[in-house]
């Protein structure tokens, strides 16, 4: 009896397996088609279309956003967000949308262009679909050269000058024209009046993003010809003081915020709309985003399916806070999710986690102290990182010498080293591993690793301390400030991240090594040593 039923049971099992496989094929086919980028539509007036990655010899696939413990939703923006709130300064305060070119019913065939304005920062994040860039109409150096090849080059030639029509959008004649740029087949998309309202010059002598938007012309759809397309979302970025760590962090932050505010599903590519040479800092640009390229690397007009214009670093809260009070304190995302507070923010902590995650470091756990240095001691060991200032060649106009902020820095470091090595620190409950932070001779990844592993970060006022934006919670900052450099950069970052901050103000540019040791001892005791 059982032998007769076995073939029938076997047939039923095979049928069920085949049916299940069919359902799986249908599911994955639908999922693939719904999640893949929109294929470029066919237009008879376009001579050719093909996918072009903005990276060199890399896949066009974009990196996903990592899971960050301090992440809070960016879109939609918070309703009735107060001006000058912490979310307005550091998060999505870009709540006023202005459509300069509205999409037509057939969205895939035309362009649209809009800006999101922040009353708090008085700046805009703009984005457009089907935006055409004509490199020959942008006057600037090529960019991306090795530093040694362009020594002595004037900075003015590295910054873009946009001629009329440097960027173009395709306008269907049915579109409503609200840009105020005039009529005709070809017209200026955004008038000076609208620029003055939404992309204000402020105190910036040469506002390159304003110049870019001002150069955009709306042309007839039939005249919008593209031989080369970039299908992936792309950030257009212009950098000032690109070799300086502090100013580059403002650029990174602006690019990150722009990506989040516009709801990009993955990390975008970046195109530098400037002619600067390469720097070590590009290692982090490449880690944070899906690849970088210089505008002048394109040898002919190129069209971006989705372009996002990142505000200048000068327009971020990180920079504006230096001259105007931004009364915000760092708080955990968990606490803010449960109890929103307009005077607190977790955005800089989220950004710091983004940097650490971009380099492959874990962000879902707090830093732990190292194991004891020897089996005879059960005391934990804390990393104390001394961020040093070194001579190095930064940019074509640099002589290779950095300005000393602490003239006896070597003496101070050596005194700390001897104090730790002596074993007579007076700290009975923990040990110290003093780390010599020679950042100018370290990769960016190693610099970030040193920051995340440090319990205490010491340094004279200098751009290298901007790395504290990536510090983990409970890190203590000890800044040595000479009389000539009493500036609030790092005190503010520590405040906005919720880090403990200890300044040592000097009467001149020389620190008393004994006083530094005593201050560090005090800090270590506060950590339970």
TrEMBL record:
The keyword Transmembrane applies. Keywords: Glycoprotein, Glycosyltransferase, Membrane, Transferase, Transmembrane, Transmembrane helix. It holds the Pfam family Glyco_transf_61. One of its GO terms (cellular component) is Golgi membrane. GO terms for biological process: post-translational protein targeting to membrane, translocation; protein N-linked glycosylation. The keyword Transmembrane applies. The chain crosses the membrane at residues 12-30. Residues 357-477 form the Glycosyltransferase 61 catalytic domain. GO terms for molecular function: UDP-xylosyltransferase activity. It is found in: Golgi apparatus membrane. It comes from the Eukaryota. It is a single-pass type II membrane protein. InterPro entries: Glyco_transf_61_cat, Glycosyltransferase_61. This is Glycosyltransferase 61 catalytic domain-containing protein. It comes from Brassica campestris.
């Amino acid at each position: 009896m059982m032998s007769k039923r076995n073939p029938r049971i076997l047939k039923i099992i095979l049928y069920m397996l085949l049916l299940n496989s069919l359902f799986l094929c249908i599911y994955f086919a639908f999922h693939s088609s719904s999640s893949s980028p929109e294929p470029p539509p066919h237009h008879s007036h376009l001579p050719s279309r093909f996918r072009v990655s903005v990276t060199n010899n890399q896949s066009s696939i974009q990196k996903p956003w990592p899971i960050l413990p301090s992440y809070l939703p960016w879109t939609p923006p918070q309703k009735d967000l107060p001006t000058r709130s912490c979310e307005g300064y550091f998060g999505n305060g870009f709540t006023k949308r202005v459509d300069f070119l509205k999409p037509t019913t057939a969205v895939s065939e035309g362009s649209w262009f809009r800006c999101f304005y922040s009353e708090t920062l008085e700046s805009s994040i703009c984005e457009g679909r089907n935006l055409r860039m004509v490199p020959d109409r942008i006057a600037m150096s090529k960019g991306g050269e090795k530093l040694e090849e362009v020594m002595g080059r004037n900075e003015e030639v590295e910054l873009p000058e946009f001629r009329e029509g440097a960027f173009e959008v395709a306008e269907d004649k049915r579109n409503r024209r609200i840009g105020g740029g005039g009529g005709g087949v070809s017209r200026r998309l955004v008038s000076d009046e609208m620029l003055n309202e939404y992309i204000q010059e402020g105190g910036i002598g040469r506002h390159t993003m304003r110049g870019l938007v001002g150069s955009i012309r709306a042309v007839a759809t039939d005249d919008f010809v593209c031989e080369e397309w970039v299908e992936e979302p792309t950030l257009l970025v212009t950098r000032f003081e690109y070799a300086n760590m502090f100013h580059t962090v403002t650029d990174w932050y602006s690019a990150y915020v722009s990506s989040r505010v516009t709801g990009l599903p993955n990390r975008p590519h970046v195109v530098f709309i400037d002619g600067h040479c390469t720097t070590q800092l590009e290692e982090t640009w490449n880690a944070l985003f899906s690849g970088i390229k210089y505008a002048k690397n394109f040898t002919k007009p190129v069209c971006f399916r989705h372009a996002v214009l990142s505000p200048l670093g000068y327009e971020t809260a990180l920079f504006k806070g230096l001259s105007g009070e931004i009364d915000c304190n760092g708080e955990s995302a968990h606490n803010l999710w449960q109890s929103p507070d307009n005077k607190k923010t977790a955005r800089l902590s989220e950004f710091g986690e983004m940097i650490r995650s971009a380099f492959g470091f874990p962000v879902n756990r707090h830093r732990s102290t190292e194991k004891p240095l020897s089996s005879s001691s059960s005391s934990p060991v804390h990393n104390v990182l001394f961020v040093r200032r070194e001579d190095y060649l930064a940019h074509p106009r640099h002589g290779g010498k950095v300005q000393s902020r602490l003239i006896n820095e070597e003496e101070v470091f050596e005194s700390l080293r001897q104090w730790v090595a002596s074993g007579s620190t007076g700290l009975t409950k923990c040990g110290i591993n003093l780390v010599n932070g020679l950042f100018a001779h370290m990769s960016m990844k190693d610099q970030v690793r040193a920051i995340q592993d440090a319990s205490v970060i010491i340094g004279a006022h200098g751009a290298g301390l901007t790395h504290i934006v990536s510090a983990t919670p409970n890190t203590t900052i000890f800044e040595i400030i000479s009389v000539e450099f009493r500036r609030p950069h790092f005190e503010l970052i520590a405040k906005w991240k919720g880090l403990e901050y200890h300044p040592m103000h000097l009467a001149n540019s020389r620190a008393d090594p004994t006083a530094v040791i005593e201050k560090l001892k005090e800090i270590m005791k506060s950590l339970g040593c």
